[in-house]
Amino acid sequence: MPVFKLRLRFLNIFAVTFVAAFFLSAELPKASYIQGRVDVVDLSKDGFKPNTIDINQTLSKDLLVATGVKGRLESVSDRNYWRLGSDTMGIWYSNTSFWLQSGSILFCSQTKQEIQFSSLECNATFKGRGTIIIEATGNGGFKFIPLEGKGILTTAKGGSKEILGGRMLLVLGKPTYFGDAYDIDLMLLLRSSRLINAFPSTIPTFKKIGLAIYVQEINLKGKYDALIGDATTNENLQIWKFGKNTGVEPQNNHRSESKKGFFKGFFSKD
Q1: Low-confidence stretches of the chain (pLDDT beneath 50)
Q2: What's the predicted TM-score (pTM) here?
Q3: What is the residue-wise DSSP string for the chain?
Protein backbone atom coordinates (compact mmCIF):
# COMPACT_ATOMS: atom_id res chain seq x y z
CA MET A 1 0.00 0.00 0.00
CA PRO A 2 1.41 3.47 -0.92
CA VAL A 3 2.80 5.57 1.93
CA PHE A 4 0.26 8.36 1.25
CA LYS A 5 -2.70 5.98 1.66
CA LEU A 6 -1.22 4.54 4.85
CA ARG A 7 -0.87 8.04 6.31
CA LEU A 8 -4.39 8.98 5.23
CA ARG A 9 -5.79 5.82 6.82
CA PHE A 10 -3.88 6.55 10.04
CA LEU A 11 -5.24 10.12 10.13
CA ASN A 12 -8.81 8.88 9.63
CA ILE A 13 -8.46 6.38 12.49
CA PHE A 14 -6.92 9.09 14.71
CA ALA A 15 -9.74 11.53 13.89
CA VAL A 16 -12.47 8.98 14.67
CA THR A 17 -10.75 8.02 17.94
CA PHE A 18 -10.32 11.67 18.95
CA VAL A 19 -13.95 12.58 18.22
CA ALA A 20 -15.21 9.51 20.10
CA ALA A 21 -13.00 10.33 23.09
CA PHE A 22 -14.17 13.97 23.05
CA PHE A 23 -17.85 13.08 23.11
CA LEU A 24 -17.28 10.43 25.76
CA SER A 25 -15.54 12.92 28.06
CA ALA A 26 -18.22 15.54 27.33
CA GLU A 27 -21.08 13.17 28.09
CA LEU A 28 -23.80 14.81 30.14
CA PRO A 29 -25.92 13.04 32.76
CA LYS A 30 -29.66 12.49 32.40
CA ALA A 31 -32.43 12.39 34.96
CA SER A 32 -33.00 8.66 35.53
CA TYR A 33 -35.28 8.90 38.57
CA ILE A 34 -37.35 11.75 39.99
CA GLN A 35 -39.37 11.93 43.20
CA GLY A 36 -41.29 14.92 44.55
CA ARG A 37 -40.72 18.38 43.17
CA VAL A 38 -37.60 18.87 41.05
CA ASP A 39 -37.27 22.02 38.93
CA VAL A 40 -34.75 23.26 36.41
CA VAL A 41 -33.94 26.83 35.37
CA ASP A 42 -32.36 27.41 31.95
CA LEU A 43 -29.64 29.96 32.71
CA SER A 44 -29.00 30.57 29.00
CA LYS A 45 -32.38 32.30 28.70
CA ASP A 46 -33.48 35.68 30.03
CA GLY A 47 -35.38 35.65 33.29
CA PHE A 48 -35.41 33.11 36.08
CA LYS A 49 -38.23 30.73 35.16
CA PRO A 50 -38.40 27.32 36.92
CA ASN A 51 -39.75 24.41 34.90
CA THR A 52 -40.57 20.89 36.05
CA ILE A 53 -37.88 18.44 35.04
CA ASP A 54 -38.69 15.52 32.75
CA ILE A 55 -37.50 11.95 33.11
CA ASN A 56 -34.47 11.27 30.85
CA GLN A 57 -33.91 15.01 30.46
CA THR A 58 -30.29 15.89 29.75
CA LEU A 59 -28.73 17.89 32.58
CA SER A 60 -26.58 20.40 30.73
CA LYS A 61 -24.32 23.11 32.14
CA ASP A 62 -27.02 25.69 31.40
CA LEU A 63 -29.54 24.03 33.72
CA LEU A 64 -29.72 24.89 37.41
CA VAL A 65 -31.35 21.90 39.12
CA ALA A 66 -33.32 22.49 42.34
CA THR A 67 -35.10 19.90 44.49
CA GLY A 68 -37.95 20.71 46.86
CA VAL A 69 -38.50 19.68 50.48
CA LYS A 70 -39.25 16.08 49.51
CA GLY A 71 -37.68 16.18 46.07
CA ARG A 72 -34.95 13.78 44.93
CA LEU A 73 -33.18 13.06 41.67
CA GLU A 74 -30.92 10.28 40.47
CA SER A 75 -28.77 10.16 37.35
CA VAL A 76 -27.20 6.90 36.21
CA SER A 77 -25.08 7.14 33.10
CA ASP A 78 -22.01 5.28 31.91
CA ARG A 79 -20.09 4.37 35.09
CA ASN A 80 -21.40 7.10 37.37
CA TYR A 81 -24.24 7.33 39.88
CA TRP A 82 -25.30 10.80 41.02
CA ARG A 83 -28.02 11.53 43.57
CA LEU A 84 -29.45 14.86 44.71
CA GLY A 85 -31.09 15.06 48.12
CA SER A 86 -33.97 17.30 49.13
CA ASP A 87 -33.54 21.10 49.29
CA THR A 88 -30.53 20.89 47.00
CA MET A 89 -29.46 23.22 44.21
CA GLY A 90 -26.61 22.73 41.75
CA ILE A 91 -25.34 22.41 38.19
CA TRP A 92 -23.78 19.52 36.27
CA TYR A 93 -21.01 20.88 34.07
CA SER A 94 -20.42 17.33 32.85
CA ASN A 95 -20.81 13.77 34.08
CA THR A 96 -17.57 14.30 36.04
CA SER A 97 -18.07 17.85 37.32
CA PHE A 98 -20.71 19.21 39.71
CA TRP A 99 -21.23 22.63 41.32
CA LEU A 100 -23.19 22.55 44.58
CA GLN A 101 -24.94 25.72 45.74
CA SER A 102 -26.80 24.20 48.69
CA GLY A 103 -27.94 20.85 50.05
CA SER A 104 -26.23 17.52 49.50
CA ILE A 105 -25.31 15.08 46.73
CA LEU A 106 -24.00 11.53 46.47
CA PHE A 107 -21.50 10.37 43.86
CA CYS A 108 -20.70 6.71 43.26
CA SER A 109 -18.32 5.03 40.83
CA GLN A 110 -16.55 1.67 40.84
CA THR A 111 -13.91 2.78 38.34
CA LYS A 112 -11.09 5.26 38.85
CA GLN A 113 -11.95 8.72 37.53
CA GLU A 114 -11.15 12.39 37.93
CA ILE A 115 -14.12 14.27 39.42
CA GLN A 116 -14.47 18.01 40.06
CA PHE A 117 -16.52 19.08 43.08
CA SER A 118 -17.14 22.81 43.56
CA SER A 119 -19.31 25.12 45.65
CA LEU A 120 -19.85 28.85 46.17
CA GLU A 121 -16.29 29.37 47.43
CA CYS A 122 -14.39 26.12 46.91
CA ASN A 123 -13.11 23.72 44.29
CA ALA A 124 -11.50 20.31 44.76
CA THR A 125 -10.45 17.47 42.47
CA PHE A 126 -10.94 13.83 43.37
CA LYS A 127 -8.91 11.17 41.56
CA GLY A 128 -10.03 7.66 42.37
CA ARG A 129 -13.19 5.64 42.90
CA GLY A 130 -15.71 5.35 45.70
CA THR A 131 -19.01 6.41 47.23
CA ILE A 132 -18.92 10.02 48.40
CA ILE A 133 -21.38 12.43 49.95
CA ILE A 134 -20.85 16.16 49.42
CA GLU A 135 -22.75 18.53 51.71
CA ALA A 136 -22.70 22.32 51.33
CA THR A 137 -21.86 24.42 54.39
CA GLY A 138 -22.95 27.95 55.30
CA ASN A 139 -19.47 29.38 54.72
CA GLY A 140 -19.50 28.50 51.01
CA GLY A 141 -17.42 25.35 51.43
CA PHE A 142 -18.46 21.74 51.69
CA LYS A 143 -18.01 18.52 53.62
CA PHE A 144 -16.34 15.69 51.70
CA ILE A 145 -17.58 12.43 53.23
CA PRO A 146 -16.28 9.18 51.69
CA LEU A 147 -18.40 6.19 52.68
CA GLU A 148 -15.86 3.93 51.02
CA GLY A 149 -13.30 4.26 48.28
CA LYS A 150 -9.71 4.83 47.33
CA GLY A 151 -8.14 7.97 45.93
CA ILE A 152 -6.73 11.43 46.45
CA LEU A 153 -8.53 14.73 47.04
CA THR A 154 -6.60 17.81 45.91
CA THR A 155 -7.11 21.53 46.60
CA ALA A 156 -5.25 24.59 45.31
CA LYS A 157 -3.83 25.71 48.66
CA GLY A 158 -4.12 22.61 50.83
CA GLY A 159 -2.32 20.12 48.63
CA SER A 160 -3.55 16.53 48.45
CA LYS A 161 -4.97 14.09 50.98
CA GLU A 162 -5.68 10.39 50.70
CA ILE A 163 -9.32 9.57 51.45
CA LEU A 164 -10.47 7.03 54.04
CA GLY A 165 -13.96 5.61 54.47
CA GLY A 166 -15.68 7.40 57.34
CA ARG A 167 -13.14 10.23 57.59
CA MET A 168 -14.80 13.52 56.71
CA LEU A 169 -12.74 16.36 55.27
CA LEU A 170 -13.80 19.99 55.46
CA VAL A 171 -13.09 21.89 52.24
CA LEU A 172 -12.86 25.64 52.79
CA GLY A 173 -11.89 29.01 51.36
CA LYS A 174 -10.70 30.64 48.17
CA PRO A 175 -8.04 29.56 47.28
CA THR A 176 -9.30 26.26 48.61
CA TYR A 177 -7.67 24.47 51.54
CA PHE A 178 -8.54 21.67 53.98
CA GLY A 179 -10.03 22.20 57.39
CA ASP A 180 -9.86 19.55 60.08
CA ALA A 181 -10.63 15.88 59.43
CA TYR A 182 -13.11 13.96 61.60
CA ASP A 183 -13.97 10.28 61.94
CA ILE A 184 -17.74 9.97 61.74
CA ASP A 185 -20.02 7.03 62.49
CA LEU A 186 -20.53 5.29 59.15
CA MET A 187 -23.22 3.00 60.51
CA LEU A 188 -25.27 5.93 61.80
CA LEU A 189 -24.81 7.72 58.50
CA LEU A 190 -25.82 4.67 56.49
CA ARG A 191 -28.98 4.18 58.53
CA SER A 192 -30.04 7.83 58.47
CA SER A 193 -28.98 9.14 55.05
CA ARG A 194 -31.85 9.53 52.58
CA LEU A 195 -29.28 9.77 49.79
CA ILE A 196 -28.78 6.05 50.37
CA ASN A 197 -32.13 4.84 51.68
CA ALA A 198 -34.77 6.94 49.92
CA PHE A 199 -34.18 5.70 46.38
CA PRO A 200 -35.70 2.55 44.82
CA SER A 201 -32.40 1.22 43.47
CA THR A 202 -29.37 0.10 45.45
CA ILE A 203 -26.01 1.68 44.67
CA PRO A 204 -23.51 -0.91 43.32
CA THR A 205 -20.98 -0.24 46.10
CA PHE A 206 -23.32 -1.17 48.97
CA LYS A 207 -21.27 -4.18 50.05
CA LYS A 208 -18.08 -2.12 49.94
CA ILE A 209 -19.71 0.36 52.31
CA GLY A 210 -20.51 -2.55 54.62
CA LEU A 211 -16.88 -3.61 54.56
CA ALA A 212 -15.79 -0.03 55.33
CA ILE A 213 -18.13 -0.02 58.35
CA TYR A 214 -16.61 -3.29 59.55
CA VAL A 215 -13.05 -1.97 59.18
CA GLN A 216 -14.01 1.25 60.99
CA GLU A 217 -15.48 -0.73 63.89
CA ILE A 218 -12.27 -2.74 64.26
CA ASN A 219 -9.97 0.30 64.04
CA LEU A 220 -11.94 2.76 66.17
CA LYS A 221 -13.78 0.30 68.45
CA GLY A 222 -17.02 2.26 68.22
CA LYS A 223 -15.58 5.62 69.30
CA TYR A 224 -15.62 8.64 67.01
CA ASP A 225 -14.33 12.18 67.00
CA ALA A 226 -17.44 14.24 66.50
CA LEU A 227 -20.96 14.84 65.38
CA ILE A 228 -20.83 17.53 62.73
CA GLY A 229 -23.33 20.32 62.10
CA ASP A 230 -22.97 23.26 59.73
CA ALA A 231 -19.95 25.49 59.22
CA THR A 232 -21.30 29.05 59.13
CA THR A 233 -17.82 30.58 58.80
CA ASN A 234 -14.34 29.13 58.24
CA GLU A 235 -13.66 29.55 61.97
CA ASN A 236 -17.08 28.51 63.30
CA LEU A 237 -17.91 24.83 62.94
CA GLN A 238 -20.97 23.60 64.81
CA ILE A 239 -19.69 20.46 66.45
CA TRP A 240 -20.31 18.15 69.37
CA LYS A 241 -17.06 16.37 70.20
CA PHE A 242 -17.02 13.04 71.95
CA GLY A 243 -15.16 9.74 71.96
CA LYS A 244 -11.45 9.00 72.00
CA ASN A 245 -10.12 12.36 73.18
CA THR A 246 -12.87 13.49 75.51
CA GLY A 247 -13.99 10.44 77.46
CA VAL A 248 -17.62 11.24 76.56
CA GLU A 249 -19.56 8.43 74.91
CA PRO A 250 -22.41 8.97 72.44
CA GLN A 251 -25.83 8.08 73.82
CA ASN A 252 -26.73 4.97 71.86
CA ASN A 253 -27.89 1.90 73.77
CA HIS A 254 -27.88 -1.58 72.20
CA ARG A 255 -25.48 -0.33 69.53
CA SER A 256 -23.21 -3.39 69.45
CA GLU A 257 -26.07 -5.88 69.23
CA SER A 258 -27.76 -3.96 66.42
CA LYS A 259 -24.50 -3.88 64.48
CA LYS A 260 -24.00 -7.64 64.82
CA GLY A 261 -27.43 -8.19 63.34
CA PHE A 262 -26.75 -5.67 60.60
CA PHE A 263 -23.48 -7.30 59.50
CA LYS A 264 -25.02 -10.77 59.57
CA GLY A 265 -27.77 -9.66 57.22
CA PHE A 266 -25.52 -7.42 55.18
CA PHE A 267 -22.92 -9.97 54.11
CA SER A 268 -25.51 -12.71 53.52
CA LYS A 269 -27.09 -10.68 50.71
CA ASP A 270 -26.57 -11.70 47.09
Answers
A1: 3-25, 226-227, 238-270
A2: 0.78
A3: --HHHHHHHHHHHHHHHHHHHHHHHT---B--EEES-EEEEETTSSS--EEE--TT-B--TTEEEEE-TT-EEEEEETTEEEEE-TT-EEEEEETTEEEEEESEEEEEEEEEEEEEEE-SS-EEEEEEEEEEEEEE-TTS-EEEEEEEEEEEEEETTTEEEE--TTEEEEEETTTTEEEEEEE--HHHHHHH-HHHHSSSSPPTTHHHHHHHHHHHHHHHTT--SEEEEEESSSS-EEEEE-STTT-PPP--TTHHHHHHHHHHHHTT--
